[in-house]
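B., you asked whether I could sanity-check this one before it goes into the benchmark set. Here's the sequence:
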Amino acid sequence: MKFRVERDALADAVTWAARSLASRPTLPVLAGLLLAVEGDQLSVSGFDLEASTQVDLEVSSGADGQALVSGRLLADITRSLPPHPVDVTLDGSRLTIACGAARFTLPGMPVDDFPKLPAMPTTAGTVDGAEFAAAVSQVAVAAGRDDTLPMLTGVRLEIDGDRLTLAATDRYRLAVRELSWNPSDPSAAAVQVLVPARTLADAAKSLSHSESMTIALSGAGGTGEGIIGFAGTTNGRASRATTRLLDATFPAYRSLLPTEWASTAEVSVPPLVEAVRRVALVTDRNAPVRMEFADGTVSLTAGGDDEGRAEEQLEVAYDGEPITTAFNPQFLLDGLGALATSTARMLFTSSTKPVVLRPTESAAAEHAGAAAEYTYLIMPVRLPG
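And here's what the prediction gave me:
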């Protein structure tokens, strides 16, 4: 195997493919990236038996062949190379990388031991890459990180005609986002699958510059053996990723969303974010920030006599009886940040029931598609007494 390629193209491809590498692989070869040259095309692939990544790019080939080397080391090397064309040569079991005055030699792993990547499933439809990436980032923030509760570590993806719905929850907050897409078969039956949140977020972010991103599904509506795939083209590089779907039942989240409100507050997001961050400085990370809403103001309080105390007051447009509630500050900040708008509405039913964050109607109109169909529900923290 021998080829020449531009430094930036190789670094981007290796970085993309390395996303699927396990931090603690069960087999040594799963820590490797497979480089395969055929004609003038180089494929860089990674696979950890759950998620796979592959990117294809054009190179000046001297000889076809395959090599398997440490993926993370290769990523570190390619990112640090000087801005010159890169010559890669396989000599026996060792891979040589030469760029300008820099030269690296890496030991190879047995190519035959590397597992075969799963085939790309059947195309379900296409979606704007940037809009899908924004939607995933808004929702994935609410996904759980406790692997003992797999149903909470995923993002539920619902396909119904030309509508996609994404939802995630960790029991303390819930994020839901809807967006339009282009289904391959508009009359196909509705499908619901559960995708690992981290893998979905990585794939969506990496393909965000694709004007048209393909979503592919096998095991429609199923779990366990089902696979979801994502593919797109960025700067002339064709990239694809697959992951197994989670074999778990997602909570019936729609019943958690209130339909009536006792009071509402319209807040300016940037000042509220800064105020929450300031008052939370005097408390432990997960200690609540208390919020007292009344006509025209919200008072924020955190801490106590033993640990320091912080207070701040902001102007808000509030409609309803005065209400006092409290939130985990990081959960509140996550929701405010995910709105991607300058103003938001907080919708209350009572001080102890979930609060809904949504963009205001004017902000939603300005950010049509980016925030207009986003809902973030957060559970309040019970206050003493």
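One thing to flag: The CA atoms of residues 151 and 248 lie 5 Å apart. Otherwise nothing jumped out at me.
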